[in-house]
Amino acid sequence: MSTPPESLVDCSRVFVKNDAYGGAGAFASVPIKSGDLVEKGIVRVLTNCDGNENPYTFTWSDDIPNTTWACGSGCSTFYNTTEEASANTHMERDFATNSFVITATKDIAAGDELMHVYKSKAWRTCFQELNK
């Protein structure tokens, strides 16, 4: 038997279910230690999309006036946002390979909701309600 190639996407430690906000959220399926991988994946860069209006896209550049937008693989689009002190994950973007890694910023119990701070939450039109 041959060894399968390493996958570009691994969300095996995450599942999606209804959340407390009336939508869907990402949750830990197993305990995850601080610093450990939560999920890794890839994105598709989008054209003809305005992420200022569409909250389901990722900010995929550091150029705010000319932002590039992307759609993520796996469970990544279901992570809800929170304040920095309450976040238990962090996403590192690799713009060159259109990939990302999400790591735990604190110990996470199985069943806990996975939360991070949206990179663009302070300035995107679609997130204005979050900043009140």
Automatic annotation (TrEMBL):
**In the record, which residues are listed under signal peptide?**
none
- Top-level taxon of origin: Eukaryota
Q: Which SUPFAM superfamilies match?
A: SET domain
Short name of any one Pfam family annotated for the protein: SET
Residue ranges of domain SET in the record:
23-118
Kindly give the InterPro entries that the UniProt entry links to this protein.
SET_dom (IPR001214), SET_dom_sf (IPR046341)
- Under what name is this protein listed? SET domain-containing protein
What organism is this sequence from?
Tetraparma gracilis
